[in-house]
């Protein structure tokens, strides 16, 4: 057995015993109370899920196994002379719960490289779609087409012991992560680059090779991809994509089915699609003004118009965060180092000065600060990746790292099928009136 898989199994046995103990001793302890409002309002603030890979603090932002994004940028392994962390290292951290050594990240690069072959029928399936199909739709369909490769689905159909589920899920998760960059690059180059594809470069790391297959071989773009793939990977368990993967996986749907479902959630404009919406929104602003760098008054007018039209300002707000997203800050730091004079980036920074006080003024927006999606598109545009409909696919490739590591944990801890109780408004009225 691969040594990382062995380590995972050992950690899972250890935590499994802890959880058993916790449930035995404290299983009936109350964690929370649920209000009528919370059941109608997206269960905001209800603690009802366990996700081992990361934890979100409203003020400090995301921590992966206790490490913040600035800490990870310091501590995770990099390529020689690299400036940004390797997502392989983050995956190891989320899966095993400890910081990796360089050789662990390198090992994962090699394992994923070896498993990265995407079957021909997946490309054939994509080729049958109208070229104007949204890249996220193509991505979901491609993942579903790859489900033919699920070792869990096959093993389950052949008949396996419950205790072995985790092992097959793990294999599927590793294969899927390995294959996603190739699938995503295929979709990109088919739709935007005349269907001319680029063969993988086995000497590169997972994110570096992804950048290469997309057609961007600039060193600083590769660094951006490593950072991008690291910061989008996980945001605890309750966000739509992570929760969906957990929920669908709880029915023992294999990782291909569960991950494709999560990607359909990521494709929503209030979630991952917001990264394309930000660029579209800024482009419309520029078109209205005839180009150039808009001043603060012009941005303010445009923001107010957006709100008056009953739309949200994309890239701002969050269900849990209550401060500027550290993922926004990490990208801002990257931009200050690599592209401080970029016009679009400067618009993003100016929007950051203008939007929060206006959202605060509304009195209802709980978090007026920018989230990860407010910055990511401007960086990509700088390097020539201007096709903003593709941006959520990049988010999705990264998100696989967190949600699939979590799915391995779900099966290793033998978590049951998820089934919260729902009620009707009739029931609710009877309840509040004491009937
Ligand atoms: N612009 C305008 N109005 C906003 C707003 C924004 N950016 N953010 C929140 N609001 C509004 C809500 O629409 C809601 O209005 P309503 O009462 O009239 O329906 C009110 O403020 C209260 O919402 P709030 O509790 O603050 O936020 P929610 O937890 O319900 O929603 C999201 C959180 C992220 C969905 C919301 O802030 C939003 O729509 N933001 C814009 C889209 C976006 O950037 N999404 C990406 C989020 C994330 F980072 C990701 O998943 O990628």
Automatic annotation (TrEMBL):
This protein's pathway: Carbohydrate metabolism; tricarboxylic acid cycle; isocitrate from oxaloacetate: step 1/2
InterPro entries listed in its UniProt record: Citrate_synth-like_lrg_a-sub, Citrate_synth-like_sm_a-sub, Citrate_synthase, Citrate_synthase_AS, Citrate_synthase_euk, Citrate_synthase_sf
Pfam families: Citrate_synt
Record-listed E.C. numbers: 2.3.3.16
Keywords on record: Transferase
Tagged with keyword Translocase: no
Keyword Signal part of the UniProt annotation: no
Family, similarity comment: Belongs to the citrate synthase family.
Listed name of the protein: citrate synthase (unknown stereospecificity)
Species, as recorded: Compostibacter hankyongensis
């Amino acid at each position: 057995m691969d040594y990382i898989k062995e380590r995972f199994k050992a950690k899972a046995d250890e935590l499994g015993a802890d959880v058993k103990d916790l449930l035995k001793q404290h299983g009936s302890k109350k964690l929370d109370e649920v209000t009528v409002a919370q059941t109608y309002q997206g269960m905001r603030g209800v603690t009802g899920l366990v996700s081992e890979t990361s934890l979100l603090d409203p003020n400090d932002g995301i921590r992966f196994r206790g490490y913040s994004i600035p800490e990870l940028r310091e501590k995770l392994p990099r390529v020689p002379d690299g400036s940004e962390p390797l997502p392989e290292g983050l995956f190891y951290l989320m899966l095993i719960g400890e910081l990796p050594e360089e050789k662990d990240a390198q090992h994962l690069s090699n394992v994923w490289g070896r498993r990265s072959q995407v079957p021909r029928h997946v490309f054939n399936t994509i080729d049958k779609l109208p070229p104007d199909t949204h890249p996220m739709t193509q991505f979901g369909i491609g993942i579903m087409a790859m489900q033919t490769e699920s070792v869990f689905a096959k093993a389950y159909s052949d008949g396996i012991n419950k205790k072995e589920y985790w092992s097959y899920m793990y294999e599927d998760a590793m294969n899927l992560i390995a294959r996603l960059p190739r699938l995503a690059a295929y979709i990109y180059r088919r739709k935007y680059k005349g269907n001319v594809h680029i063969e993988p470069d086995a000497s590169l790391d997972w994110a570096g090779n992804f950048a290469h297959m997309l057609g961007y071989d600039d060193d600083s773009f590769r660094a951006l991809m490593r950072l991008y793939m690291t910061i989008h990977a996980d945001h605890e368990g309750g966000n739509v994509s992570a929760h969906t993967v957990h929920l669908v996986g709880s029915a023992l749907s294999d990782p291909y089915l569960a991950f494709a479902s999560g990607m359909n959630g990521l494709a929503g404009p209030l979630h991952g699609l917001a990264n394309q919406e930000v660029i579209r929104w800024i482009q419309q602003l520029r078109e209205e003004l005839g180009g150039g760098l808009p001043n603060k008054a012009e941005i303010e007018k445009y923001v107010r118009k957006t709100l008056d039209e009953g739309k949200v300002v994309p890239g701002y707000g969050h269900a849990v965060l209550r401060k500027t997203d550290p993922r926004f800050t990490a990208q801002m730091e990257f931009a200050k180092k690599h592209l401080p004079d970029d016009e679009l980036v400067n618009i993003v920074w100016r929007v950051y000065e203008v939007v929060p006080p206006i959202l605060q003024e509304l009195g209802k927006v709980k978090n007026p600060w920018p989230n990860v999606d407010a910055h990511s598109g401007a960086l990509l545009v700088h390097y020539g990746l201007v096709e903003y409909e593709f941006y959520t696919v990049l988010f999705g490739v990264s998100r696989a790292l967190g949600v699939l590591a979590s799915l391995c944990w779900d099966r290793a801890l033998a978590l049951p099928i998820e089934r919260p109780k729902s009620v009707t408004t009739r029931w609710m009225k009877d309840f509040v009136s004491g009937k």
